[in-house]
Amino acid sequence: MAKHIKGLVWLVLLLMLAGLILIFTSVHFGMAQGNNWLLRNMDIGSDPELYYLVVETYTGSFMLIGGILFGAGLLIGILTFFTSVLFDEAEESSRTELHLKQSEDA
């Protein structure tokens, strides 16, 4: 496997893992950000419905970012796989043609 493909595989794994972590822990991160918002806005008072809306917004944001990271990793992985397969086939056919040409010249 070529060196650049190994690097892309690591990038794909990192993106997909980060995306899955963000998706599955989005509620925890959303609650933490909502609590930080509540502490920052304690002096103006807080409405429970507004707090719920803030937590839901943060949770949705973390899920969206996680989904984007996971999708980007998946897309890069699929493209890497298909390009490596296509380039391997092209390289194999060029080797075969070169071998046939050398056999004809001999």
**Multimer state:** single chain
Instruction: Tell me the series of helices and strands, N- to C-terminal.
Output: HHH
Report the span from N to C terminus: 33 Å
Largest sheet: none
The percentage of residues in β strands lies in under 5%
Radius of gyration of CA atoms, rounded to a whole number: 25 Å
Supply the number of structural domains: 1
Number of strands: 0
Percentage of residues in helical conformation: over 70%
Number of helices: 3
Q: Residue ranges: pLDDT <50 for 5 or more in a row?
A: none
Please summarize what this structure is:
The chain has 106 residues and is an all-alpha fold.
Topology summary:
Elements: H1 3-24, H2 26-40, H3 48-105
Helix pairs in contact: 1-3, 2-3
Question: Could you explain the architecture of this structure?
Answer:
The chain has 3 helices and no strands. With 106 residues, it is mostly helical. α1 runs antiparallel to α3.
Notable traits:
rod-shaped, 106 residues, 90% helix, mainly alpha, single chain, 3 helices
